[in-house]
Write a structure and sequence with these properties.
With 146 residues, the protein is an alpha/beta fold. The protein has a single domain, classed as 3-Layer(aba) Sandwich (Collagenase (Catalytic Domain)), CATH 3.40.390.30. Helix content is 45%, strand content 23%. It has five helices and four strands. Helix 1 links the parallel strand 1 and strand 2. It starts with a strand and ends in an 8-residue tail after the last helix.
Length: 146
């Protein structure tokens, strides 16, 4: 059984349980078992600070994945996902997609990074991004924010 811990910088959002459920379904679909995954939703200043500190990029971003990859007994601790709700909103406006869709995309993106996948750029043909969009489509009936 997978476990998901969600934290919010500031006010907890009413869609927290739906986010946990969505993440669990993605992990199950990917065949992940006994994962303990944590997700932090924050603002742009926090993610910018993390990006500068750990990636040497002094700029805001939408999602960061911090891989841990450790086991304790039967539990696996893949790491942490951090998502900027402000940047998520900006991305949704820029790409003309609902915020809910962008949230699901970022969660899947973070999970795939923790699974060990990566991408050299943002070209649609990148294998990780192809899988990301396929999962997004497969789970398009699930909504988190709405």
């Amino acid at each position: 059984m997978n476990r998901v811990e969600i934290a919010f910088e500031g006010k907890t959002q009413p869609w927290r349980k739906r986010a946990e459920s969505f993440i669990t379904k993605i992990l199950d679909r990917l065949g992940k078992r006994n994962w303990n995954l944590s997700v932090l939703f924050c603002g742009s200043p926090t993610i910018r600070s993390l990006n500068a500190r750990y990636r040497r990029r002094d700029e805001s971003t939408d999602v960061l994945s911090f891989s841990l990859g450790e086991s304790c007994g039967s539990r696996f601790f893949p790491g942490d996902i951090v998502i900027s709700l402000e940047t998520l909103k900006e991305n949704a406006e820029y790409f003309a997609v609902p915020q809910d869709e962008e949230l699901r995309r970022l969660l899947i993106h973070g999970i795939l990074h923790l699974e060990g996948m990566d991408h050299a750029g943002n070209e649609p043909g990148e294998p990780m991004l192809v899988l990301q969009e396929r999962l997004l489509e497969e789970f398009s009936v699930l909504h988190i924010m709405e």
